[in-house]
Amino acid sequence: MRGYDGLIPCYGDLHNHCDISYGHGALETAFRNAREQLDFCSVTGHALWPDMPEPGPAVGYIVDFHRDGFQRLRQRWAGVQETTEAFHEPGAFVTFLSFEMHSSADGDHTIVYPGARGEILTVDGLADLQRRLRALHAQGVRALAFPHHIGYKRGQRGINWDGFDAAVSPVVEIVSMHGCSEADEGPRPYLHVMGPADHQGTMRYGLAQGKRFGVIGSTDHHSAHPGSYGHGRAGVWAAARTRAAVWDALWARRTYALTGDRIALRFTVNGRPMGAAAPAAERREIEVHVVGGGPIDCVDVIKNNALWRRVSRCDVGRTPVAEEGIRTKLFLEVGWGERGVRADWDVRFGLSRGRVLAVEPRFRGPEVVAPTEVDAAFDDVPPSRCEREGRGVRFQTTTFGNPNNRTPATQGVCLEVEAEPGARVEAEINGRRVVHPLAELLEGARAGRLGKIASPAYRFHRAPGPWEFDWRLGFEDSGEPGDVYYVRVRQLNNQWAWSSPIWVG
């Protein structure tokens, strides 16, 4: 697709936490977990809060664990840099160094260095941070700072768009475990103790103010599990899986925000890719190519913050299954059982005839955030692992029964395959052999349990046809200089993607 020639999608998490400040789990564990399902990662230390509230009966314990975390990070900073560099594998797994600054007045920011070396900047607020970053740029160190969980109310750690500076902040985080801040109505509301979202903290409000930025997602996970499935990830279109190429993509705003699935989203206006400023033109050719992690429900084109076009499943024609086989997605999910009860899984999963095109682990970390939320049950849980084996994979993981009827705690692996006629989907789940003809899964999902009622369970999701997850769309439009477009994708499984905007004129 024009605008993406020579580029590959890379998936990462630039904002997440572990015990290097306040959080849970070792830095080495965080990078090992990230390496299982991400292409790039930084593990963030909480470093400073220039306008932190004064201690008092209501917030004293919050102030204390922040101060302790800031001090711990500074004590460990040399080791953090060494470990970040040790896990870097050019071409396979890219690491960056980062730290976080809280700000009640201007919103929290993640500061990321282009490599594994850099200092914790001591500043008195956002303006001072921006000044220090511009000074680093003048020295050849192009560190960046991106605002995150922007949706909180201004003055309560939400973004201050008046102080936003694209010269040091090429991207903005719009989805994480805090919620989604595309708009003040939409998926994933803010439910954290920090409060609800506010219109002036949204992506759309920033665009309406004329700000230019790309978008990413991150997990903001606090338990050494970057990329924890379903909380937020960043997609970038890079020339290679290297630091320089990922860094260039961030600064070019060739980025998009994801919730979980590895959705590959391409979007152009007059041949210019997401994040670009296209030359002024009355006529616009808009192209979208989406390869989802599962069946796509709809693709929206947003123009000037309003829904301009929606293509849904009823608009996309079904293609008959070819006699020589089919390209599809096979997703095996494990977990369930009694709430909070541990289950260890050893699973072999694959195809009898055909080939595996891609493997996508969908692993989650424990849902604990503040130091006061430590759960000893997680202390001896081994990291989830997934390895290729012939026409499939072997994965080992641990689940704890879903904590309520709304929050999943399952684990799984998705295979993209080209299946031959008569193929079977085969699995060995904790020693139990399970086989389903692919034709059966094309009809619908199949589930089972390891024992009686309330025992751990598994689910082979429905295998979609390629016309369900691979959409190519084209539109024509006309307009005025200054028009702004972006694309939003929703899958049937409630996983989402949002492109960076394209500005015309």
The backbone outline, from C-alpha atoms, is globular
Terminal-residue CA separation: 22 Å
Instruction: Tell me how many strands there are.
Output: 30
The biggest beta sheet reads: 13 strands, mixed
The CATH topology name of the largest domain reads TIM Barrel
Approximate helicity band: 10-25%
Strand content: 35-45%
Q: Assign the CATH superfamily of the largest domain.
A: Metal-dependent hydrolases
**Count of helical segments?**
7
The top-level CATH class of the largest domain is: Alpha Beta
Low-confidence stretches: none
Structural class by secondary-structure content: alpha+beta
Mean pLDDT: 95
Number of domains: 2
Q: Taking Cα atoms only, what radius of gyration do you get, to the nearest Å? A: 23 Å
User: Which architecture of the largest domain would the CATH scheme give at its second level?
Assistant: Alpha-Beta Barrel
Report on this model:
By secondary structure, the protein is an alpha+beta fold. It has 2 domains: 8-260, TIM Barrel; 326-464. Helices cover 15% and strands 37% of the residues. It contains 7 helices and 30 strands. The chain is globular and about 65 Å long.
Topology overview:
Blueprint: E1 8-13, H1 27-37, E2 40-48, H2 60-86, E3 94-101, E4 109-112, H3 126-138, E5 144-147, E6 171-176, E7 179-180, H4 203-208, E8 214-217, E9 233-238, H5 243-252, E10 255-258, E11 264-269, E12 272-273, E13 277-278, E14 283-291, E15 296-303, E16 306-312, E17 326-336, E18 342-351, E19 354-362, E20 385-389, E21 392-400, E22 411-419, E23 424-429, E24 432-437, H6 438-443, E25 446-449, E26 456-460, H7 466-469, E27 470-478, E28 483-491, E29 496-499, E30 502-504
Parallel strand pairs: 1-2, 2-3, 6-8, 13-30
Antiparallel strand pairs: 1-9, 3-4, 4-5, 6-7, 9-10, 10-29, 11-12, 11-14, 14-27, 15-16, 15-28, 17-22, 17-26, 18-21, 18-23, 19-22, 20-21, 23-24, 25-26, 28-29, 28-30
